[in-house]
Specification:
The complex is a heterotrimer.
Chain A lengths: L5 E11 L2 E12 L3 E5 L6 H9 L6 E6 L2 E2 L11 E3 L11 H11 L4 H14 L15 H13 L6 E4 L7 H18 L3 E5 L2 H7 L2 E6 L2 E6 L1 H6 L4 H6 L4 E11 L2 E6 L2 E7 L8 E6 L4 E3 L9 E11 L2 E8 L4 E6 L8 E6 L5 E4 L22
Parallel strand pairs in A: 3-8, 3-9, 6-7, 7-8, 13-20
Antiparallel strand pairs in A: 1-2, 1-4, 4-5, 9-10, 11-12, 11-14, 12-13, 14-20, 15-19, 16-17, 16-19, 17-18
Chain B lengths: L1 H4 L8 H11 L1 H29 L15 H9 L2 H32 L5 H13 L2 H14 L6 H25 L3 H9 L4 H30 L2 H6 L7 H10 L6 H25 L2 H5 L9
Helix pairs in contact in B: 3-13, 4-13, 5-8, 5-10, 6-8, 8-10, 9-10, 10-13, 12-13
Chain C lengths: L2 H14 L9 H22 L9 H8 L1 H32 L6 H27 L4 H8 L13 H25 L3 H9 L4 H29 L3 H5 L10 H10 L4 H26 L12
Protein name (chain B): ABC transporter permease
Keywords (chain B): Cell inner membrane, Cell membrane, Membrane, Transmembrane, Transmembrane helix, Transport
Family (chain B): Belongs to the binding-protein-dependent transport system permease family.
Chain lengths: 374, 295, 295
């Protein structure tokens, strides 16, 4: 139960009757880190968390806490705390008894159990609700109980499985700050699973993006945001414009690409060959509308759909060559408007198209050269 | 068509609407007529036993000549009912306890886990409920006699376990399924071992299910005729078997004292039924089909 | 040295979902093997070891003796119509009653009574109620519907009625719970599309209910097929209600010919399983997925 300085996962894998849910996860967690496992549903992130917790036996690999091998230990002997998506509070126990449960299991003296429970209750500000049953609490309060229950016995590692996904938008933001605050003030080491890239970016020190059970990229939020490792990660990190294309010219790190009737200049990401098939990725907010100055990657387009989103508008436009394009702008535009668009070549990322893309389920996110969504 | 699709919004929607129209339909009267006819006959069946047990002499008249309670005293003596009732209770309590001990852990594994051969195991547990008791009761009794286990109480208890354990498994499974498995995971993450999870978390949450299946097994065991009949010896008859013997040997004893015994059996079952219905709904007494949540 | 293969095995087993928790199944498995499978196969082998003759001579003996062979038809002639009537009568009544109405709980509770009482007590009541001097015949006579008492006990009809009295409530409660498992908005949706109640029933509800009806029929049939006490008590056990379970019982407990009794029990189980397999085979032709109910 003692704190560790490093937790290492070596080739951790989990198969379910011939189906690979998680393949060869290698990860080193330093004490005090906040790590987010990120990916779409079914990517293996929850499997990874459950393997780490000991709730799911591995089918290959090992887990080491410093020099001690722990993947053979049952969950109750690893000394980790866990917060569940559905809170998983004991419905027959009061808030106080729920929080004290972990201390009771460790057979701490009564006095200490009482003191530390009260402390945890204060920490999550539930002083007025200690004698209630979980069913009498709101979703946010239940989540606070779940967090208090997981941290009260000072676990060496706290695991969180999409803890905010059952909350409404406003509460989610509040609890996000709360979780980050607890992580810092208690000096916790946290592994956090989520499918929400914004949540992961704002909380974590390091992100692990998973897809189909495999690690796609491990890095800091900034790296993830600006330089996704492949177009799948880009897709997941909010690059909504993904177009097929073909390399026309390579010039160091710059590539010129022909895509659906446009010649685009962008940043080459990874190993590109001349004439190779590529995927071009652009964030909607990096598409400039009638911007002054920027003239590279210019195209004219017609606005088709506009969504009001507060300070900004999100819009779909179709270029004169027929390519559909997502953009965000603070300018006032309306459906039918003719606009000039431009994209900074530094914000236009060119990825090699992978071999699996024809059978790939997310290839429907790609638009082909005819410009119509496939 | 307006009558079908339109209900004024101020009223509760369709169910009320449907019920109101049912009353107006002649088919509804037929349905209710059949139900009432059925209940009248049922009442006749039960009441004729009851009236007869209090009748001094009843022959070819609407009602007996006079009334007496003396048949009950006679039945009590003649059939050694005290001993029979004690045996019945002992057998039932043993069967309930054992079938819960065997059935609940199995129900837990079957509800929670998937593993090779699970469907086969589930089918094997279902078979004793799908087969008529006489079919497997005769070979079972033969085996039990071979090992000297039949003809006494252990045989009766063992035989009655055969349908009871699957029954517990079937009753408990939905109760276990409705507990979020992550609650158990949470307990383990808090440092509770398997045993503690069972005793401190699962058992308190399963109390309603355990009560329900206990009472259901109790009712079935007290009412179980065939298996007890095949395995009981003279000292290990339950009430329903004693009743059968006294009926098939009628002529030796007055009809009314058999009726008195039947009434004693009936009242015992009705008490159990009233208790049972506090914990389960009527459909559960019949089979494990999910019931609508209105009760 | 054994560390590596051990880890390997643990990983292999983990992939298939096998771990220590499965030991919780052990008591139930031991129980079902010792008290159900072993006796069953013991009976099966015993049936091929007759007291004299070749391995199949007991089966041959059963089928060559018309008195014995006919017990199959006698049983089916009682059980099939009774089960069919119970299920068919239950459908319209349950369809009327599936909504909420005052007294629904009372009706269902009353219906549980005959199931709880069981066949022995029902038999006793029927003897009193339907007998030549019972209330039923008295009503018929006093209303001049008949000139002399109708014979309803100690024959086919006595057994049939006893199966209806215990079987109908059973079927009704099952059908009712299957019906409440069908999302009522489906019928409302059909109504908005212009279907009248008749077509809503035949096109939407009935197809969704069919699998449930098949299951209900099977369970009701199992009950009726194993009819034993009422066949003896209100039937004519030497003649028209000599059912197959009675033949098995007599072989075992009156002739003490256990191989022959086992052979009859096996035949009985086989016939029953054939009928059930036929019904379940037909059932699989219907849609058996979720019916969208809240149950």
């Amino acid at each position: 139960m003692s704190a560790f300085s490093q937790l290492r996962l070596h080739g951790v894998s989990r198969r379910f009757g011939g189906q690979d849910a998680l393949t060869d996860l290698d990860l080193t967690i330093e004490a005090g880190e906040f790590i987010a496992l990120l990916g779409p549903s079914g990517c293996g992130k929850s499997t990874a968390l459950n393997c780490l917790a000991g709730l799911l036996p591995l089918t290959a690999g090992s887990i080491w806490q410093d020099e001690r091998r722990i993947d053979t230990l049952p969950p109750e002997r690893r000394g980790f705390g866990m917060v569940f998506q559905s809170y998983a509070l004991f419905p027959h126990l009061t808030v106080r008894a729920n929080i004290a449960f972990g201390l009771r299991m460790r057979r701490l003296p009564k006095e200490e159990t009482r003191r530390r429970t009260e402390e945890a209750v204060r920490l999550v500000r539930l002083e007025d609700h200690v004698d209630k049953l979980p069913g009498q609490l709101s979703g946010g309060q239940q989540q606070r109980v779940a967090i208090a229950r997981a941290v009260v016995f000072e676990p060496s590692l706290v695991l969180m499985d999409e803890p905010l996904s059952n909350l409404d938008a406003k509460l989610r933001l509040e609890m996000r700050t709360e979780i980050r605050r607890l992580h810092q003030s208690l000096g916790l080491t946290t592994v956090y699973v989520t499918h929400d890239q914004e949540e992961a970016l704002s909380l974590a020190d390091r992100l692990v993006v998973l897809r189909k059970g495999r690690v796609q990229q491990i890095g800091s939020p900034r790296e993830m945001h600006t330089r996704p490792a492949n177009w799948h990660v880009a897709d997941f990190m909010g690059y909504r414009n993904l177009w097929r294309g073909r390399v026309e010219q390579l010039d160091g790190s710059r590539a010129t690409v022909e895509s659906s009737g446009h010649r685009l200049l962008g940043e080459a990401m990874g190993d590109l060959q001349d004439r190779a098939e590529v995927v071009v990725a652009v964030r909607p907010e990096d598409v400039r509308v009638d911007g002054p100055g920027e003239t590279r990657n210019a195209m004219s387009a017609t606005i088709e759909v506009v969504e009001y989103q507060g300070r900004e508008l999100a819009a779909e436009a179709r270029t004169d060559a027929g390519q559909l394009l997502h953009l965000r702008t603070e300018q006032r535009i309306a459906p039918g408007d003719q606009v000039k668009l431009a994209i900074d070549p530094g914000r236009l990322l060119v990825y090699p198209a992978d071999a699996e893309r024809t059978t790939e389920d997310r290839s429907d996110r790609l638009t082909d050269s005819a410009g119509a969504p496939r | 068509m307006a009558t079908i699709t339109q209900a004024p919004p101020a009223r509760p929607p369709v169910p009320t609407d449907r019920r109101r129209r049912v009353v107006a339909r002649p088919a509804a009267w037929i349905v209710w007529g059949v139900v009432i006819f059925f209940f009248l006959n049922l009442l006749g069946v039960v009441a004729s036993v009851l009236v007869s047990s209090f009748g001094r002499r009843w022959f070819d008249t609407w009602l007996p000549d006079g009334y007496t309670t003396s048949w009950y005293g006679r039945a009590w003596e003649e059939f050694a009912l005290l001993q029979v009732i004690v045996v019945t209770l002992e057998v039932s309590v043993l069967v309930v306890g054992l079938s819960l001990l065997i059935g609940v852990p199995a129900a837990y594994v079957l509800a929670r886990r998937s593993f090779p051969g699970k469907r086969l195991i589930f089918l094997v547990f279902l078979l004793p409920i799908l087969m008529p008791p006489i079919t497997y009761g005769i070979p079972l009794a033969t085996v039990l006699y071979k090992f000297g286990l039949a003809g006494n109480m252990s045989g009766v208890v063992l035989a009655n376990l055969v349908p009871s354990v699957p029954f517990v498994i079937l009753t408990m499974t939905p109760f276990i399924e409705q507990i979020d498995p992550r609650i158990e995971s949470a307990a383990r993450m808090c440092g509770a071992g398997l045993r503690t999870v069972f005793l401190r978390v699962l058992t308190p949450l399963l109390v309603p299910g355990i009560l329900a299946s206990a009472i259901l097994v109790l009712v079935r065991t007290v009412g179980m005729f065939e298996l007890t009949f095949l395995t009981a010896g003279p000292d290990s008859q339950t009430l329903v078997v004693a009743l059968y013997y006294s009926m098939s040997a009628s002529g030796i004893r007055a009809q009314q004292s058999v009726d008195a015994m039947a009434v004693i059996y009936t009242s015992m079952m009705l008490v159990l039924l009233v208790v049972a219905l506090r914990y389960v709904n009527p459909t559960q007494l019949v089979a494990q089909v999910k019931e609508d949540p209105e009760h | 040295m054994s560390g590596r293969p051990l880890t390997h095995w643990r990983h292999r087993l983990a992939e298939r979902g096998v771990d220590r928790q499965l030991w919780l199944l052990a008591p139930a498995l031991i129980f079902v093997v010792a008290l159900f499978l072993y006796p069953f196969f013991y009976g099966l082998t015993l049936s091929f070891q007759p007291t004299d003759g070749g391995p199949f001579s007991d089966y041959a003996r059963f089928f060559s003796d018309a008195y014995e062979r006919d017990t199959i038809w006698i049983t089916l002639r009682i059980a099939l119509p009774a089960a069919l009537l119970n299920v068919l009568a239950a459908v319209p009544i349950a369809y009327r009653m599936r909504g909420r109405f005052r007294g629904k709980r009372l009706v269902t509770t009353l219906l549980v009574v005959p199931i709880t009482l069981g066949t022995v007590l029902t038999a006793q009541g029927l003897l009193n109620f339907l007998g030549p001097t019972g209330w039923f015949n008295r009503i018929l006579l006093s209303t001049n519907l008949v000139d002399e008492p109708v014979r309803l006990t100690h024959n086919y009809w006595g057994v049939f009625f006893s199966l209806v009295i215990t079987g109908f409530p059973f079927a009704f409660l099952l059908v009712l719970s299957y019906l409440s498992g069908i999302d009522p908005t489906l019928e409302r949706a059909a109504a908005t599309l212009g279907a009248d109640w008749r077509r809503r029933f035949t096109r939407i509800t009935l197809p969704l209910l069919m699998p449930g009806l098949a299951t209900t029929f099977c369970l009701t049939f199992v009950l009726a097929f194993s009819v034993f006490p009422s066949a003896v008590l209100v039937g004519n056990p030497a003649g028209e209600t000599r059912v197959i379970s009675l033949a098995a019982y007599q072989a075992a407990y009156e002739q003490y010919d256990y191989p022959y009794a086992s052979a009859i029990a096996m035949i009985m189980g086989f016939v029953e399983l054939v009928i059930i397999a036929l019904v379940l085979g037909a059932r699989s032709r219907f849609y058996t997925g979720s019916t969208g109910g809240k149950g």
